[in-house]
Amino acid sequence: MKKVKVGIIGCGNISGIYLKNCTQLFDILEVKAVADLKMDRVRKAAEEYDIPKACSVEELLADPEIEIVLNLTIPIAHAQVCLAALEAGKNVHVEKPLAITREDGKKLLETAKSRGLLVGAAPDTFMGGGIQTCKKLIEDGWIGKPAASTAFMACHGHESWHPDPEFYYKKGGGPMFDMGPYYLTALVNLMGPVKSVTGSTRITFPERVITSKPKYGSVIDVETPTHIAGVMNFENGAIGTIITSFDVWGAQLPRIEIYGTEGSLSVPDPNGFGGPVYVLRKDKNEWMQIPVTHGYTDNSRGIGVADMAYALRTGRKHRSNGELAYHVLEIMHGFHDASNDMKHYMLESTCEIPDALPMNLLTGTLDK
User: Fold this and answer.
1) What angle do CA 346, 347, 353 make, to 5 degrees?
2) What is the CATH number of the domain that holds 50?
3) Mutual orientation of helices 15-24 and 303-314 as an angle, nearest 10°?
4) What is the CATH number of the domain that holds 187?
5) pLDDT grade, residue 103 (50/70/90)?
6) Domain of 89?
7) Fewer CB atoms near the end CB (10 Å): N or C, the chain?
8) For residue 58, what is the enclosing H or E element?
């Protein structure tokens, strides 16, 4: 199958694993160019990963050979860069979230549709072996019909380790927009789209002091909720509970559990690609660990870009698509809106459940 040429915009903290996988793991991808506002980052990335062109964003978008732009900029720039890529005739895959506002998210989808282009967004961790195993267990009836779920992400934020953590506490940040996409995308993939949500939010610490370098001692004024508790009503009738928090010093909570009519399923960390996966059947007294049935259990970020490349070549739908990403974006806003308005928020969007990955794939491939 003919390779798909990719241009990467953004050489920040997350870019290393994408650069590695897009240049070394997925056979269908060929990274032709890399760009960033900071040219020292661009030259370093190009040299380390043997990328032929280190250039400006404008030059990358003007390259007629590039078919997919991988947007790894910070959240506030996601929509602007994605829109520029679409207007340049490029398909685009962006780090999470799809956009900060619903309006920008809709504009991206509408622009892509009008131009016959594809939009995709992280997270693509749901395509890893761990969650794909959970998907197979549910589809094979191991826990019966899913009736409820819980999801928890609780920590004390990123100012103790991230080199540039301010944006996590500004508009478009917070634990829901930072980590919520992993949990919500996994839940939609396993249980289907959401019909309505409600929630409560708060800011526990109005100021945060950075204790990581190079900005040690700087004070961040927190502008977005840092503890969000939400309830989801899925279209299939199941009820889900989620908590995302940057206000917790320590917790002993599961990541995700799904409760069915015939048993319960323990889903691994949706920020990773592997296991472990556990099931408790209604006629058993103990959880049993289930061997992972699918590949891509190591950090395989970029698998969504590769899946988009296969979609371009074959005409099938890609899994980490814009409709899924927009639905997750609307769910996240819905929790905040429900808290502000003290009522349920009814989702306007929906999406298809992504197809399962085939089993026994050769490493570096996604289709048989």
Assistant:
1) 140
2) 3.40.50.720
3) 40
4) 3.30.360.10
5) very high
6) 4-121
7) C
8) helix 57-62
